[in-house]
Amino acid sequence: MLKRAHSFAKKLKKNPNEKGSHLRDIFENVQEQHYWTKKEEALFLFGLETFGRNWVEIAKLIQTKDNAQVSHYAYYLSNKIQKDPSIDGAQFADILQAPKVNFWNEEENSKFLEAVKVHGRDWMQVAQLVGSKNNQQCSQHGLYLLRKFKENPALDHDNLSKLLKQSKIKYWTEDEDERFCDALRIHGKDWGKIEELVATRTKN
């Protein structure tokens, strides 16, 4: 849903008469979610000091950003610190620039497999259930397991290969776009409500 909103916002910039132009304010407001306020930046630094590189916990603390946005901001801040070590947040350079930990322990892997059974390839939901990994890490772990299962099918005890396989891109139909615009007009950025009205798409 959020990706579709960004897609509409870009189209409206190029063509003001594009379908959905009456929702311009909402679409522009959605794009503003990518900008970080001073409060969000302060919460990020506090979260970094408290939770380290646990983007899921930091996102919960900030509340207005998801774990993917937190991860991207950490990458952005790390690059900024390298150019100017005097900026606010430079004291956490060691944490930000630490090697990424991609190792999955047994508990995380078990949570991941259970989450995939319930949510399939919805990595945002899977990450929430795993708790200690973000959606990108879950997506990468899914690809890793898929390769392992392909090499040795005996490892796939729960027949998860079908759930982990990359599905083809499903383009939005005109009917879905109309339902999406109607739902956005009624519910604003309440992606849960919009998901219910669109019915054929998830909020991510």
Secondary structure topology:
Elements: H1 2-14, H2 24-31, H3 38-51, H4 55-62, H5 67-83, H6 93-96, H7 106-119, H8 123-130, H9 135-151, H10 161-164, H11 174-187, H12 191-198
Overall morphology: flat
Low-confidence stretches: none
Total helical elements: 12
Instruction: State the end-to-end distance.
Output: 6 Å
Major sheet summary line:
none
* Helix/strand class: mainly alpha
Question: What Rg do the Cα atoms give?
Answer: 19 Å
The SSE string, one letter per element, is HHHHHHHHHHHH
Oligomer: single chain
Instruction: Give the averaged pLDDT, no decimals.
Output: 76
| DSSP helix fraction | 55-70%
Number of strands: 0
Total domain count: 3
Q: Strand share of the residues?
A: under 5%
